[in-house]
Amino acid sequence: MPYNLLKGKKGIIFGALDDKSLAWKIALRCYEEGAQVVLTNAPVALRMGEINKLAEQCGNAPVIGADVTNMDDLQNLFTRSMEHFGGTIDFILHSVGMGINVRKNIPYTNLNYDFNHKTFDISSMSLHRILQTAYKLDALSEWGSVIALTYIAAQRVFPDYSEMADAKALLESISRSFGYHYGIKRKVRVNTVSQSPTRTTAGSGVKGFDGFISYAEKMSPLGNATQDDCANYCVTMFSDLTRFVTMQNLFHDGGFSFTGVTPAVIEQMKE
Question: Residue 239 — very low, low, confident or very high, per pLDDT cuts 50/70/90?
């Protein structure tokens, strides 16, 4: 049920590829809650994905391609978005990540550092590039909100998550550091949401991902948070109800992050 939490607000959604994407679900919920959105992804992802279907469902939202590692692309994205909205932007979702060593099944103990650099540039430094572009253009409204999606592997070891754990740790650090500076400048808040493991197109490419999901379900008192619930949570973070929450890594994981062990896990170990 919509509550009009984002009525009149305008935002950019990075990273929607198909209906399995968290960004896809979040874009739909933002639109349902009254927001106008611009959708963006890398040009190659726009060709491979189904983002035009999402655009139709979001009131024929504009789709503007942008390589998040290219500053000219990002400047064009923000400039055109502000022209479309007729003013500044109220919220941004960063749902961007690619672990190239992971995709190529290269183990963490034998990383290809050229691939590793690209992983960091796409998955982590992209947030800095986005924020720096918005900061220089004064593109975000006062009390605006930025959310980047992350995972608890930034704090705990999940061996098969490999280089993406380092990328998420850097992503969370950037959100804190830039959150300070943007808070001083425009009262913009910047946070990360650490979501339960979710069956997205990107997540499914991680070795042993089904095991991640099963283990987390048994470890979480409330069970794994769904994609739809993640979308609901992000809507509250984009709304005016959370104006003084910034520079935080917010666990949206059914209690997994603070649970030591559960009977279900112990029973599974006995088996």
Answer: very high
194 membership: H or E segment, kind and range: strand 189-195
**Quick one: which of 148, 151, 131 has its CA closest to 140?**
131
From edge to edge, which strands make up the β-sheet containing 189-195?
Answer: 36-40, 10-14, 89-94, 140-150, 189-195, 249-252
Which tokens sit at 136?
């220089």
- Would you say 171 and 150 are in contact if contact means Cβ atoms under 8 Å apart? yes
User: What are the residues facing 36 on neighbouring strands?
Assistant: 10
Closest C-alpha to 194, from 177, 172, 211:
172
Per-residue model confidence as pLDDT tens digits over 79-100: 999 999 999 999 999 999 999 9
Closest CA to 118 of 133, 134, 131, 104: 104
Distances, alpha carbon 147 to alpha carbons 53, 109, 236, 238, 262, in Å: 23, 31, 11, 8, 31
Query: How much of the chain is in helix, strand and coil states, percent to nearest 5?
Result: 50, 15, 35
pTM beyond 0.85: the answer is yes
Give the span between the Cα atoms of 188 and 137, in whole angstroms: 14
Would you say 158 and 102 are in contact if contact means Cβ atoms under 8 Å apart? Answer: no
Q: All domains of the chain, ordered by start, with CATH?
A: 10-270 (3.40.50.720)
pLDDT band at 201 (very low <50, low <70, confident <90, very high): low
pLDDT in tens, 245-255: 999 999 999 99
Alpha-carbon distance 123 to 166, whole Å? 10
Q: 12 vs 66, 79, 140, 240, CA distance in Å? A: 12, 12, 11, 17
